[in-house]
Amino acid sequence: xxxxxxxxxxxxxxxxxxxxxxxxxxxxxxxxxxxxxxxxxxxxxxxxxxxxxxxxxxxxxxxxxxxxxxxxxxxxxxxxxxxxxxxxxxxxxxxxxxxxxxxxxxxxxxxxxx
Amino acid sequence: xxxxxxxxxxxxxxxxxxxxxxxxxxxxxxxxxxxxxxxxxxxxxxxxxxxxxxxxxxxxxxxxxxxxxxxxxxxxxxxxxxxxxxxxxxxxxxxxxxxxxxxxxxxxxxxx
Lengths: 114, 112
What we know:
Strand order of the largest sheet of chain B: 1-9-8-3-4
Radius of gyration of chain A: 13 Å
Largest interface: A-B, 26 and 25 residues
Structural class of chain A: mainly beta
Number of strands of chain A: 11
Number of strands of chain B: 9
Mean pLDDT of chain B: 90
Strand content of chain B: over 45%
Shape of chain A: globular
Order of helices and strands of chain A: EEEEEEEEEEE
Largest sheet of chain A: 7 strands, mixed
Order of helices and strands of chain B: EEEEEEEEE
Oligomer: heterodimer
């Protein structure tokens, strides 16, 4: 079974530039999550989708971050404009509805903002 | 905020059992205790979960105290590949639909 796919694995940008990350969840998983993990900390939830609807985006800095999940499958997370403090690993995860605590994570996209 | 507390780091000798403690005295009666681990440069990986009873799978065992205020994850025969950060997380099936709130976890170092 294919896992959660993310791209790109690494991205380096200047502050105030924009960046987009892509995630393809495990087939059949209705729920998709984006987490931000700053070095030395545990992952922090940014946004949670169920199918193509947003369940929780309370931690998403909406002035610069946006996310969408068109057709309830793939998802993109965009940052515009980026700040230095956005340097982090962005993790995508998916889960089946009836196992809400069992998330499958991708390898993450590491962003460095200079 | 995370509802669990864990020691920041632990060491374990290769081949010995690794016992990772977690305090969760404030979790509700509906909250399951989940354990994940994160190997360097990878995403977190699910290990095991439980509510009241002890649980065992091919990766680990989970011992939950009768009062549910704490639990211990046991890796019976630790290998070098078990070196990782281990997270203990409370998950409420009835509320957050699986929103995992990660703390800083325990960094387990398995030494030869």
